[in-house]
Design goal:
- The protein has helices at about 15-25, 65-75, 125-130, 140-150, 165-180, 195-205, 265-270, 305-325, 405; strands at about 1-10, 30-35, 50-55, 60-65, 80-85, 90, 95-100, 105-115, 120-125, 140, 160-165, 180-190, 210-215, 215-220, 230-235, 245-250, 250-255, 260, 295, 330-340, 345, 350-355, 360-365, 370-380, 380-390, 400, 415-420.
- By secondary structure, the chain is of the alpha/beta class.
- The chain has three domains: about 1-120 and about 260-330, FAD/NAD(P)-binding domain; about 125-255, FAD/NAD(P)-binding domain (3-Layer(bba) Sandwich), CATH 3.50.50; about 330-420, Immunoglobulin-like (Sandwich).
- Strands 1, 2, 5, 6, 7, 8 and 19 form a seven-stranded mixed beta sheet that branches. A five-stranded parallel beta sheet has the order 10-17-11-12-13. A five-stranded mixed beta sheet has the order 22-20-27-24-25, with no helix packed on it.
- A hairpin with a 3-residue loop joins strand 7 and strand 8.
- Helix 1 runs parallel beside helix 8.
- The model has no long low-confidence stretch (mean pLDDT about 95).
């Protein structure tokens, strides 16, 4: 078995992995390896041919492949950065040893002084949400259909129903319409959409595609191929309301019912996991509960913008590089971050602050759509930051930054909440 050693080993060659690699290089790491299981770098962006990427990070509007190309160009011709594509990571151990395999080198044992996990996320499938009915052809996740249409050149069907209003499903509603297919409806079990507002407008309203909120599929009809579905309204407990059923004729069902961080490797090394984000618990440097192991991007919590993925991964790359070069400021204060009063999740979940503080950016998701609320960040009874928000939605992440002079004041616990009495 081939033995290799690097300063930093990065598992995942999507936008998070590439951004982490470039940031590590810029912060002094001399030997960096990026491992990607697909045939090319760039991750899921390679199949996202629509525009809307890069407005925050690169200050211009790019397609998914365009954004991926920018990230690849950053690490190109850097002798300090090595990439391995078509390489599967089989196992990661707590001592930062990676067992990987590819057709060229066979089985490899790779060690690193620091390890960054950037494996991204995956889609929930039909089995995960237990839709009744036969097992006909024509049921796809939205991401699988996206790859089929945009990269392989095949249409999954002609009369489409989309279950779930996640961003990939909304984008595929538009994509299938542009390919000449008839998108019959988009169904959402929640009383609100789970996609970005801009995607609701640009992908459904602009194409006159109906959106049924508080509805779900109760049966998929057809034995060999999907022939139609039965839809019903659900109550506030998401239970089917008898008597509200109706049928929709279709030959294809696309599922956009949520994304899950790809965390089999994280669980294999017993990282402390968060029950709501389904990702590792991290601090502001994106360090996990295991020393020398960092995590960033959708493997920590699912983002709505790839720009935020890159921003978070740059933090992981920076602090991993500072660690391996012996320049990491020592933490003197450990702080727990507690979401409450309308905030469902907040990343990072804890802070390890050096003397004099450190910039901290908090990424939050709210529990329900609200209007005219004030976001408040408190340390005990002391208000550190407040911001008026005209609208908040679970599908759109809220991000705020605390400067070092604010974080230097934090002791013990930080609380984030929504104040509705404004």
């Amino acid at each position: 078995m081939k033995q290799l050693h690097y300063d930093i080993v990065i598992v995942g060659g999507g936008p998070a992995g590439l951004s982490a690699a470039y940031s590590a290089y810029e912060n002094g790491a001399k030997k960096i390896l990026v491992i990607e299981r697909d045939r090319e770098l760039g991750g899921i962006l390679q199949q996202c041919i629509h525009n809307g990427f890069g407005l925050h990070h690169f200050k211009e509007e790019l397609t998914g492949p365009g954004y991926a190309h920018r990230c690849i160009e950053l690490i190109k011709d850097k002798p300090e950065i090595t990439t391995m594509v078509d390489t599967m990571v089989l196992e990661v151990s707590g001592d930062k040893t990676v067992l990987a395999i590819n057709p060229q080198e066979g089985l490899m044992q790779i060690t690193g002084d620091a390890l960054i996990l950037t494996m991204g996320c995956r889609e929930r499938t039909r089995g995960a949400i237990r839709i009744p009915g036969e097992r006909p052809a024509g049921v796809f996740t939205a991401g699988a259909a996206q790859r089929m249409v945009n990269m392989e050149g095949y249409l999954p069907g002609h009369k489409i129903v989309i279950l779930g209003s996640g961003d990939i499903g909304l984008i595929m509603a538009r994509r299938m319409s542009l390919e000449g297919c008839k998108v019959q409806a988009c169904l959402e079990i929640c009383p609100f959409s789970n996609g970005l507002t801009r995607n609701i407008v640009q992908c459904l309203h602009d194409y006159d595609i109906p959106l049924y909120l508080s509805h779900t599929i109760t049966k998929i009809k057809g034995k060999d191929r999907v022939e139609g579905i039965t839809v019903a309204k659900v109550d506030e407990r998401m239970q089917v309301i008898p008597g509200t059923e109706f049928d929709i004729d279709c030959d294809t069902v696309l599922l956009s019912v949520g994304l899950i961080p790809e965390n089999e490797l994280s669980r294999g090394i017993n990282l402390e996991m968060h029950p709501l984000t389904n990702g590792p618990i991290v601090d502001q440097r994106r360090a996990t509960s295991q020393p020398g192991i960092y995590a960033a991007g959708n493997v920590v919590h699912v983002h709505d913008l790839v720009d935020f993925v890159s921003e978070e991964a740059e933090l992981a790359g920076k602090y991993a590089a500072l660690q391996v070069t012996g320049c990491l400021p020592a933490a003197v204060e450990t702080v727990t971050v507690t979401p409450t009063d309308g905030i469902r999740t907040c990343v990072p979940q804890r802070l390890h602050l050096p003397e004099g503080g450190e910039p901290v950016k908090l990424f939050m998701r709210v529990a329900a759509p609200l209007r005219k609320v004030k976001l408040e960040v408190l340390c005990g009874d002391k208000l550190l930051l407040s911001r008026m928000l005209p609208v908040v939605k679970p599908s759109e992440m809220v991000a705020v930054e605390l400067p070092p002079e604010k974080t230097a004041e934090i002791k013990g616990e930080l609380t984030v909440r929504l104040n509705r009495g404004v």
